[in-house]
Structures are given as structure tokens and as C-alpha cells.
Amino acid sequence: RKELGGFDETARERLMTHPFPGNVRELDHVIERAVLMSTGAQIKARDLGLSTGTGDSRGLEEMSLEEVEAYLIKKALARAGGNARQAAEALGLSRSAFYRRLQQYGL
């Protein structure tokens, strides 16, 4: 279980200024993703996955559920140095569920 010291200043600003068209449910999902994606003691703006409005790259909120799940799996694998057991654990999945998703998304 991760112990986090909250949000850094930039992340707090992004949370306060994002419109959250999905309201509380969307906010809940953004925070859940941020906790999974964070690597430090605090959640940073990049962990939130919110689009910045610059460039044409899509934020996580603009992706389909399948695209977000594949993205999170790739990030978890990268952070675990390719170790599937650690990546599955970080995502809260059993190894068999993790491998099914790898196969499902062609990863």
C-alpha cells in the first residue's frame, strides 16, 4: 500500500481549475489514476493525466476505457522494469487478470 503526502502545488492548481464535466465521479477516477501512477511522495500534475490544452495529445479523460487501461498497464510495466508481477500488484490485479489484459490489448 502506497503512502502519499498529498498533492504538489501544480497538481492542486490543475485539480482546482479543471472543469470536471463528469463531476465527482470523474474527480474520483482522476485521483485514483494519480495514486496508481505516482512514483514519488506526492502526486504531481503529470500523474493526474489531465490534458493541458496545449498540443494535440489527448488527456486520459478523452480516451476510451480500453485506451486508458492499456495506457495504465504500459506505464505500470515500465515503472516495474518489465516485471509483470510487480506491475500487476501496483494495479491491484492478480497475475492471471494482468496477463489476460496484456493479451486483450496486444501488449
Report on this structure.
The chain has 6 helices and no strands. It is mainly α. It has 2 domains: 61 residues, Helicase, Ruva Protein, domain 3, CATH 1.10.8.60; 45 residues, Homeodomain-like (Arc Repressor Mutant, subunit A, Orthogonal Bundle), CATH 1.10.10. Helix 5 packs across helix 6. 16% of the residues are buried.
> What's the structural domain tally?
2
* Overall mean confidence score, pLDDT: 82
Overall shape: it is globular
Name of the CATH first level of the largest domain: Mainly Alpha
Element order, helices and strands? HHHHHH
Fraction of residues in β-strands: under 5%
**Portion of residues within helices:** 55-70%
CATH topology of the largest domain: Helicase, Ruva Protein, domain 3
